[in-house]
Amino acid sequence: MTPAGLKLTHRSHDDPDRALNALSKIELVITDCDGTLLYTDKTLGSPAKEAVRKLSAAGVRFTVASSRPGKGMRSIVETLGVTTPFAAFNGGKLVDPTGWRTMNAHWLAREAAETALESLARDGIDAWVFIDDAWYITNPGGDYVSLERRTVGYDAVVVKSFDGIDLGSVEKIVASTKDAALLARKEAELQGTLKGRAIAMRSQSYYLDITHPLANKGEGIRELAQLAGVALEKVAVLGDMQNDVAMFDVAGVSIVMGQASAQVQESATFVSSTNDEDGFAMGVSGLLAVRE
């Protein structure tokens, strides 16, 4: 029987026993942060904190993977007592939280970064450049600057142009605009223009992330599982956006939040409630119920 609060997707509906058997063997849980672990207002609720505590009590390891920079994940990691390495920049950087040491990182090729920035500038789309934990912007009045400041917990460095920074050490470029349709078109365009040189994928309807080809959550989950000594079939992941599908594709079990698009939902094993309805906590409860 499917655990309370979880529904099988059409992808897994034909073999529910297999899906439930996989759920019962989970040893490592890795979750997306924004839109999954966190409420839409970026807060971390008590049900999520309690769910992580219950995972630890059951002997299931836990960590996080996000499009955020490592520094922007510090509050979450410390609040939840994460001691296992975690993934920042969509898997582009692995960080050891016990000493905040970078374990691995993938940088955009300079010419890919230049191509992306030129393309965004032509369409008047705000661009942000992340190098390590530094966040560079040219438009401090941009639509989502204040939201990002609140999300990552620190201020951007305002520059007149990106010409004066080292574009050979960029870990992520973010395109930001309220025009969701424009951003969708730009996503498709850059996926073609940068094919083989970078990934262009939205992490929110208003954010388009551009990263190294290996800076994706699928590769990040592979590396985190290997570091933990856990086989991928014993890893469960939770997410909500298109950039989470890469980790859905490699993990043994995937749980998607209820507000995700139909396409993203069909890429997962189970569907939970929305993030604002404690979908993360419900997903963890379902996992633990099967293990008991």
Automatic annotation (TrEMBL):
Keyword vocabulary terms for this entry: Hydrolase
Key word Ribosomal protein present: no
Alphabetized GO MF terms: magnesium ion binding; phosphatase activity
GO cellular component, one term: cytosol
Entry keyword Secreted: no
SUPFAM superfamilies in the cross-refs: HAD-like
One Pfam family from the record: Hydrolase_3
Protein name according to UniProt: Cof-like hydrolase
Organism name: Caballeronia sordidicola
Lineage: Bacteria, Pseudomonadati, Pseudomonadota, Betaproteobacteria, Burkholderiales
